[in-house]
User: Which sequence fits this backbone?
């Protein structure tokens, strides 16, 4: 029986998932290939493309063997000691990096994970997110251009459908136009002490707020009540414009 394939890449065995064995997650060969594709991409962003540097920075003891297999599968080619993606490998690596960096944004902004925690979980989730779920995460986050570390997030089909005039679905309160209303979707802050006063003023998920003023401080209105906020807090309140 042939291996299941990714519907977006019928020639590629599906990378969606580590396998469970005896209550633990077992690393698959597809995972190893994914991680080497990601490493090649990251090195290229830094201007490093030689094979020796790639091998030195890989934690996989079988890296050389797996790279040989990847070359046979047509994922990359060698130009002397330089590693160059072929079209198939470029597309796969782009998808892996996109899933990883979007997952980091989601975990840090929505679940307030630390960088270390988000990185660890993103390394797992990058292998299992389907294209549809990945695009849903991207749309939910407002098609972010960069990951939390400032690295570019490759665009997906959902991003390419947008024009510059189209606003993200979910965006910070500060991005509302004056007089525009938005419904609070979530509040993302690492400072827990900020949540209690916001709740006391009625700034909670589901409530409709209106941006009334930007300077000298941000002023929002909830019903008949006006509330002054500093810019930092405004960036932590995510709304869906109405």
Assistant:
């Amino acid at each position: 029986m042939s291996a299941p394939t990714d519907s977006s890449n019928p020639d590629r065995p599906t990378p969606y998932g580590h396998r469970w064995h005896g209550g633990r997650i077992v690393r698959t060969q597809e995972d190893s290939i994914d991680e080497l594709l990601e490493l090649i991409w990251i090195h290229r962003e830094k201007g490093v493309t030689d094979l020796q540097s790639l091998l030195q920075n890989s934690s996989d003891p079988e890296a050389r063997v797996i790279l040989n297999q990847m070359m046979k599968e047509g994922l990359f080619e060698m130009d002397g000691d330089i590693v160059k993606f072929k079209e198939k490998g470029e597309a796969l690596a782009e998808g892996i990096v996109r899933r990883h960096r979007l997952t980091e944004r989601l975990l840090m902004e929505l679940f307030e994970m630390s960088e270390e925690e988000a990185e660890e979980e993103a390394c797992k989730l990058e292998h299992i997110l389907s294209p549809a779920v990945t695009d849903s995460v991207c749309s939910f986050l407002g098609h972010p251009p960069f990951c939390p570390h400032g690295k570019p997030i490759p665009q997906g089909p959902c991003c390419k459908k947008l024009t510059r005039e189209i606003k993200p679905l979910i965006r910070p309160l500060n991005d509302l136009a004056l007089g525009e209303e938005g419904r609070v979707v979530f509040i993302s802050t690492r400072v827990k002490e900020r949540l209690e006063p916001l709740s006391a003023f009625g700034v909670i998920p589901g409530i409709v707020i209106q941006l009334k003023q930007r300077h000298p401080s941000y002023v929002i209105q909830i019903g008949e009540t006006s509330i002054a906020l500093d810019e930092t807090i405004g960036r932590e309140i995510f709304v869906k414009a109405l």
Q: What stands out?
A: The chain is about 40% helix and 20% strand. Residues 1-25 have pLDDT under 50 and may be disordered. Residues 171-241 form a domain with the SH3 type barrels. fold (CATH 2.30.30.90). The CA atoms of residues 15 and 127 lie 5 Å apart.
